[in-house]
């Protein structure tokens, strides 16, 4: 099924919501969803589609420079829902200082952009290292070291548990339960968690873990799990509604915690990247208003 | 790294163990590791390599017929360590009876082959169904319905938790903890669990879950998690030692439960399937004696 078709189980295609539609009030475009767009293009695309918020990545911000990036989003009247990404602090102990310093720069950028949260992707196993528990321990220590720095900047750290498909090479924190075990050692206003449907939909008891997360939910992100899984594991996320995720129950559980922040659509998918950005944004806005927004109330 | 190279962190290549080597006493070749071989060829390959046990699949058994399959393995003096596979009982309720009956046939075959365990692969979500909790519930009910049938045949059911990469389309039971939650409703001699390193290596607290499993471990199976993940998710398992799994600690935890059964190498991998079967068996025997067998004591 292509991203512009209707997902199974949906009624006949509904109209694309237009700019100003109140149902779009909390929608955010994570800019990796339209990876071919520069930051300026993504900002313009959000404005054209009436998407009021954007999740930015550090690399495209660096391309234009932080000051200009801040102006771009401010002049467009957009919110920045999150900055991706800090983390990657599970390397050998000799790399811990450099990783910490890189995360300080990421925190500075997050503060400058006025984003509420820096998304932390923990990182994977060092080359040749098979000590997963050790890497998980280093992730927890690195978060702890960033707590005073984040508080000083008024930025929240968002630990992102990642699907176990990425445990070896990208994110050693594999469940929401595990992310909360780490986060709960710290104040909730400084250390939260990122709840991403793609990463977490399979977790046994995940809705109970969402309830446990409560006010720690720092970001709610959407992508679907599609089968057959695309050949590149990194680009295996599907458009909301194309796959197996039950967005209704997941979203209702997030809403029940009182989460009032933006809802980011973050999809890494080669087919979407090859499609015109405006079409992708129109599709995700439609899917969001059909499948997600009604359950946020 | 190819399957015939040394994995990182190993000493210089050690000799391939020869038939009669006591270190091979518990090694089993799951015949999907050498998928190009017929059952007769796999039996011959085990004998040539001195592998005393084989894990069989129902399809290649059916190709020669059950009676002949029983004679093939008996005449060769091999044990059958497991039969793959029963399960696939998460379809819509209307399919439950047919799935149950198919599992009865699988139990009959397992008994005839003298294998201690029928491996249960639970199955995925029905087409268009997004109720993962519901599918998990049906899996638990289907196991319960098989308990008297398994007991009557002297066969153990082995619930196989599968990596979350397969939660949508193959196995809705995603963690050892979850498999044990289902199994513990039944006597341990009738309902056990299959502990497969590929599926479980990432699970937070997995070694504690292995200890919890105790006498419920019905089969211990080996494959590695390799990166980058091969493009076909179903064929993404790696040769023991080629990837990120810590076989030493995993195996020691299994051994600490008192598990005394065979240790099956089950690897679905297109590169291995394209290699000569005897080479694959020689490599896995060497890797097993280097990385696994020393930790079984």
UniProtKB/TrEMBL annotation, chains A, B:
Keywords assigned by UniProt, alphabetized: Isomerase
Signal peptide boundaries: none
Occurrences of domain Xylose isomerase-like TIM barrel (ranges): 48-277
Superkingdom classification of source: Bacteria
Gene Ontology MF annotations: isomerase activity
Keyword Isomerase annotated: yes
Cited InterPro entries: IolE/XylAMocC-like, Xyl_isomerase-like_sf, Xyl_isomerase-like_TIM-brl
Pfam families given in the database record: AP_endonuc_2
Region of interest: Disordered: 1-24
Protein name as annotated: Sugar phosphate isomerase/epimerase
Originating organism: Nocardioides imazamoxiresistens
């Amino acid at each position: 099924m292509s991203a512009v078709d209707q997902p199974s189980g949906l009624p006949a295609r509904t109209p694309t919501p237009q700019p100003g539609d109140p149902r779009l009030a909390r929608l955010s475009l994570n800019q990796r969803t339209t990876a071919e767009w520069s930051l300026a293009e993504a900002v313009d695309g959000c404005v054209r589609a009436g998407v009021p918020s954007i999740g930015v990545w550090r690399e495209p911000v660096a391309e234009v420079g932080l000051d200009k990036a801040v102006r771009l989003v401010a002049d467009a009247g957009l919110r920045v829902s999150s900055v991706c990404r800090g983390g990657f602090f599970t390397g050998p102990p000799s790399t811990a200082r450099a990783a910490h310093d890189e995360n300080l720069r990421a925190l500075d950028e997050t503060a400058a952009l006025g984003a509420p949260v820096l998304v932390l992707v923990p990182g994977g196993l060092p080359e040749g290292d098979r000590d997963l528990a050790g890497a998980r321990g280093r992730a927890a220590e690195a978060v702890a070291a960033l707590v005073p720095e984040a508080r000083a900047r008024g930025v929240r750290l968002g630990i992102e548990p990642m699907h176990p498909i990425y445990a070896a090479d990208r994110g050693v924190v594999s469940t929401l339960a595990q992310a909360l075990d780490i986060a709960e050692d710290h104040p909730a206003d400084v250390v939260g968690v990122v709840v991403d449907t793609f990463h977490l939909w399979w977790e046994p008891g995940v809705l109970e873990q969402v309830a446990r997360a409560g006010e720690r939910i720092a970001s709610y992100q959407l992508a679907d799990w599609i089968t057959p899984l695309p050949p590149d594991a990194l680009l295996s996320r599907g458009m909301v509604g194309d796959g197996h995720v039950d967005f209704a129950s997941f979203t209702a559980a997030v809403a029940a915690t009182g989460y009032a922040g933006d809802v980011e659509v973050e999809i890494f998918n080669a087919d979407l990247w090859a499609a015109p950005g405006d079409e992708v944004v129109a599709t995700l806005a439609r899917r969001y208003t059909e499948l997600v927004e009604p359950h946020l109330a």
